[in-house]
Amino acid sequence: MTLPCLPFAWLLLLLLVIPLPAPADEATVVVSRLQEALLQSMKEGEKLGFEGRYRLLEPVVEEAFDFPAIARLVLGRFWRKLDPQQREAFLDAFRELSVATYAHRFDTWNGERFETAEEKMLKKDRRLIKTYLVKANGERVELDYLVHRRGENWKILNVIADGVSDLSLKRAEYTSIIKDKGFPQLLDKLHENIERYRHEGR
């Protein structure tokens, strides 16, 4: 039995009536990919161990965050005083510490899940992605991500947990260390934290 061909007008009407899924905004996708990896790290945390979680998260974290821009923001005026080698040394340590921190903190799963609430346009090249980490008991931790466009990609600039800006905390801590003790002491502090996380994860 051959079905009759539908006139073009009917086909057009069907396309208009049947809703098609809207493509996810690229800015939100960056955050979603990070959170999916964090959830996997939690669920497989014991099996993977610290080094396994680090290897899992490293490419995702490096892809998600705009580390060069964050480095300039957290060091403020001190960034301009660093030579190219010092800047590279800070960037390497800062990236490594960021991955190590996530691998350290997202090590166990107890029924948590992530929810994306909304995306707010702040300006043409900036968005605020509002999300929640929902615990098994229903308690919510608000996690907001400030993202900006870098070339053709969206990158995370800042994470705000329950209203507390991670970028602001790091800026206050890092600039205080440089001011009081110097840049080499800041690098030592970053490496100490990395080794502490590795040691605690063994």
What does this structure look like?
The chain has a domain at 26-113 and 166-201. The chain is built from eight helices and five strands, in the order H-H-H-H-H-H-E-E-E-E-E-H-H. It has helices at 8-17, 26-43, 45-64, 67-75, 77-81, 84-105, 166-181, 183-201, and strands at 113-123, 126-134, 140-150, 153-161, 164-165. It has a five-stranded antiparallel β-sheet. The longest helix is centred in the middle third of the chain and has 22 residues, at 84-105.
Observed structural traits:
202 residues; alpha+beta; 8 helices; 59% helix; disordered N terminus
Q: What's the end-to-end separation, in Å?
A: 68 Å
Biggest beta sheet attributes: 5 strands, antiparallel
The chain-level structural class is: alpha+beta
Topology pattern, helix = H, strand = E: HHHHHHEEEEEHH
In short:
This protein has 202 residues and is an alpha+beta fold. It has helices spanning 8-17, 26-43, 45-64, 67-75, 77-81, 84-105, 166-181, 183-201; strands at 113-123, 126-134, 140-150, 153-161, 164-165. The protein has a domain at 26-113 and 166-201.
What's the topology here?
Elements: H1 8-17, H2 26-43, H3 45-64, H4 67-75, H5 77-81, H6 84-105, E1 113-123, E2 126-134, E3 140-150, E4 153-161, E5 164-165, H7 166-181, H8 183-201
Antiparallel strand pairs: 1-2, 2-3, 3-4, 4-5
Helix pairs in contact: 2-3, 3-6, 4-7, 6-8, 7-8
